[in-house]
Amino acid sequence: MSSKNIIKVYKRKERRGWYYSFTAPNGQRIRRHAQTDDEQQAKELAAKHYNSLFEVQRLGSKPEHSWQETVVEWLKENPKKQQDYNTLLFLRWLDNHLGHLNISQIDREVLRQVRDAKMAEQVKPRTVNAYLQQIRIVLRAAYDWGWLDRVPKFTLLEEPKRRERWLTSDEKERLFAELPEHLIPIVRFALATGLRMSNITQMKWSQIDLHRQTAWIFADSTKAGRPIGVPLNHEAMDTLRSQMGKHPEFVFIFRGKPIKRANQAAWRKARDRAGLSDFRFHDCRHTWATNHVISGTPIYQLKELGSWSSMEMVQKYAHLNVEHLKEFADNASRFGTNLTPVANQDGQRKNSQYN
Fold first, then answer.
1. Where in the numbering of this chain does the Tyr recombinase domain appear (predicted)?
2. How far apart are CA 263 and CA 310, in angstroms?
3. Which residues of 217-254 are buried (b: 16+ CB within 10 A; e: fewer)?
């Protein structure tokens, strides 16, 4: 029986792109998102996936695959990552260390060498872990395709807990006083909407409904993989109006061209001049969420506004709203300082148990 008779290619409601499913020769049910809007390409990817599993499970053969070949295939299955700055940065660096290897040769010792090489650059544990995680993601995909028998286990570096950073009113004034003109509307929009940087810099006028005061982010551009509607407050609307007429397609531009990233040299220099060297662009999102909670927005509504996939992601902001605790704040001082000392059996005064 050919793979064409086994593979089902289909679409899902409210999801962009094609999906495919089939039963592998060993009986395992496989379901995948083909990461493409082209039906024929989805069929070809599915057939390739099935045939690779057939070779391994029925014929017992397992051809070698290089790290570079695996990365190329992974990027084909994840076209959104082809435009992701950090992903491409990670993969370029990793190619210098893994590009000469087959994926079957990548074991714990190789991963230790990669870890040590990155640590030698004096970067933070979080950065080292990001590179190791990228390797794990690619190797897990290879395992799913039947290219790899197992993914080597390795332990990530321990990361110190990060404090959530947000702007105070004074810090906001200092930052805007230093920002170059082309970054001001981007940062204003980020603080007004809580959107991630890529959703802002890639925003097109076709995503904006000024009449309904809503912006639309497509599923292939969201972290959760589902489309979201973003209500626009007056600050966001004012920002959009200031950008009208500057470009026929993109909302935010610099010298007539769309801005790819907003956290590069110009951002870092302005931030440092403002004395905010520990403030990242993504902290604009934390600032937005913090202001919501302090102003009384319920956590569940904040989850919807921020398009977080779970309550756990939002819970870190819950402790910032103390309105429900204010009525209890005075309880600690109800026992005044004029407590009558208690006398002991010898008639000597002794301290109160509350001292």
1. 162-330
2. 27
3. beeebbeeeebbebebeeebeebbeebeeeeeebbbbb
Per the listing, tokens 């007429």 go with 245
Q: Report how far residue 222's alpha carbon sits from residue 211's, in angstroms, rounded to the nearest whole number.
A: 23
Q: Are strands 342-343 and 349-350 parallel, antiparallel or unpaired?
A: antiparallel
Q: How many residues does the chain have?
A: 355
Residue 209's DSSP bridge partners are 214
Nearest to 67 by CA among 140, 130, 139: 139
pLDDT digits (tens, 9 = 90+) for 144-190: 888 898 999 988 998 877 667 889 899 999 999 999 999 999 999 99
* Contact criterion met (CB below 8 Å) for 250 and 258: yes
Active site residues: 196, 223, 282, 285, 308, 317
106 vs 65: CA distance, rounded Å: 11
Pairwise CA distance, residues 304 & 224, whole Å: 12
Distance CA 36, CA 273 (A): 44
Compute the distance between CA of residue 143 and CA of residue 311 in angstroms, rounded to an integer: 31
DSSP 346: T
- For 248-311, strand residue ranges (E) read 253-254, 257-258
State how far the Cα of 28 lies from the Cα of 174, in Å rounded to an integer: 58
Q: What is the DSSP letter of 250?
A: B
- List the domain boundaries for the chain: 1-61, 80-160, 169-320
Which pair of tokens denotes residue 30? 């496989």
pLDDT (0 to 100) of residue 191: 96
- Which of 7-21, 102-116, 192-206 has the weakest average pLDDT? 7-21
pLDDT higher than 70, residue 339: no
Residue 63, token pair as written in the block: 């051809």
Phi-psi region of 296 (alpha: psi -120 to 50; beta: other; left: phi over 0): left
Give the amino acid at 253: I
The answer to whether residues 221 and 210 touch, using CB atoms and an 8 Å cutoff, is: no
Please tell me the class of the 169-320 domain. Answer: mainly alpha
Beta bridge partners of 204: 250
